[in-house]
């Protein structure tokens, strides 16, 4: 049986039927605890630095994800937001910050930023998040699902030099907000570690195995 507390509150929320529902939920005058995901704390060190500059754009997302609310799916056709928690910033901005930190922590690049260094940088990372939700199961369990498509673009000629889809599915025991957030952290760490290794390889450097 799903967590009773969540079940009672979810019953009072409308499924997301469009921008109006999203707007109404976001404007609700209810104080929510804020949660922040962080980049992995154990990124492998490159050992040497590439003379490369990377700009990381905030990912694009669907309307339901383009918010600071934490998305939950009680079933495949219904989407709700957690009633008592939110992200510390909107998902695209939070993910951009995590990606910046993850690339920086490897020490592999001469520059990592939100915009190119100078008029034109060397590479840009463009991505789209299509899944970032907790999918509720039976018996007070859930699966955190993350899916992201990333493209590494050479700035000089706008050529896509690499493209890859990253995904993670992390089972969690319990549907309390903190339990779900910890699951999001595990899924994000997994995808970020894979994406950083892939991105650096696309720029000419292979990270050592962690």
Automatic annotation (TrEMBL):
It comes from the Bacteria. Pfam families: ABC_trans_aux (PF03886). Residues 35-195 form the ABC-type transport auxiliary lipoprotein component domain. The keyword DNA repair does not apply. Keywords: Lipoprotein, Signal. Gene3D superfamilies: ABC-type transport auxiliary lipoprotein component (3.40.50.10610). InterPro entries: ABC_trans_aux. Residues 1-24 form the signal peptide. This is ABC-type transport auxiliary lipoprotein family protein. It comes from Roseinatronobacter domitianus.
